[in-house]
Amino acid sequence: MKKTLIIHIGWHKTATTVIQLYLANCREKLRKYDICYPAIDNQTGYGRIKHSDLLVSVFNELHPRYKRSAIRPFSELFELSVKEINDSKCRWAVLSEEGFSMENPGISKLMGRYKEYFDEIKIVAYVRRQDYFFESFHSQVVKQSVTRDTKNLDAFLSHPGIKKRADYALILDWWAAEFGKENILVAPFERQTVVPDPLTYFFNLAGLPTKIFDEFPLEKIQAHNSPPREVTEFFRYLNMKGVDFHEKALCGYLLKSGATLTDTKYFGRAERERILREYGSSNERVAREYLNRENGVLFEEPVREYLNCPETWTGLTPEDVLDYAMPVIGMMSFEISRLRNENQRISIFKKKISNFLDKIYRRMIKKHGNS
Question: What is the mean pLDDT of the chain?
Fold first, then answer.
């Protein structure tokens, strides 16, 4: 039986969580349909639904002086993954981690070790238009607990690694050099392309049996949507001040606070067009060489203007952050004050009850002592 390995490399902010959650939640059920989604060995919290431990082991192998965490070395996790896949006796296996699309050619070379154990290896990559990718990815690294970035969007975009990560042709070429261009499966992350939904499209693109959805349909999974700009900037301000917060609880509250919020978008139309010009040749090459599109168009959605997105929105100072986030902060302050007053009222009431019970107790002791 021909054995095929699917390596899902992301990119970030392309419904990877939806795909990974389904694969993780249906891990045992998938084997009935000849699909193995290995758990490997989860020594950190990152690898519960995806293969972040494997990615970190790759990073540690490539950068031994800058180890991110004390997990098993790549050679051990590699052997564990191969054993788990072989023991499953499944025709297909899937590895998924958006960090595999990081800007380092060594990642694809190290993952090339899997070629010895599989008849076929396919690389699945969802790519998002760069202006949208930058906005969403920036919001993610600001609000997620493992990074809590403090850089404003301008500083974030000036980082060489971030700029290189959006050069899709460059990174896809690294994977093509290791696994062959014919095995690189690319999908522009746009509504008209990824249909009817990102998960079903992923199965179709990778050649996995979709009949599993008849028995185990995709349940509604909460995707990691980007919050409005005020929320992102408020989180960034908290990061700068070293304030600890529970991301999901705080983000959920802010979105329901009733404050007047704008949009998730930062860039105006002129800035979007500038970004797409910068990556124009790279995108055209992906369209022609990986999707066989003769017109060279990778992203078909037209560039549009968004309300309240002036070109000067980026480059905010901490004081500017507070100005933009003030509607949210104001609503939070009101709610915090209300809760504080409520707690004080309850505390006073509890104190009165405690004093009352104490008096009764003393009287009982006194009466018992007299008797």
Answer: 84
pLDDT of 352 reads 78
Among 3.40.50.1970, 3.40.50.1220, 3.40.50.300, 3.10.350.10, name the CATH number for the domain at 4-215.
3.40.50.300
Query: Where in the chain are the domains?
Result: 4-215, 227-263+317-371
Listing from the earlier edge strand, what are the strands of the sheet with 184-188? 35-36, 92-96, 4-8, 120-127, 184-188
Decide if 166 contacts 130 (C-beta within 8 A): yes
CA nearest 299: which of 61, 161, 142, 127?
A: 127
Higher pLDDT residue, 371 or 74? 74
The answer to whether the beta carbons of residues 96 and 51 sit under 8 Å apart is yes
Q: What is the pLDDT of residues 110-132, one digit of tens each?
A: 999 999 999 999 999 999 999 99
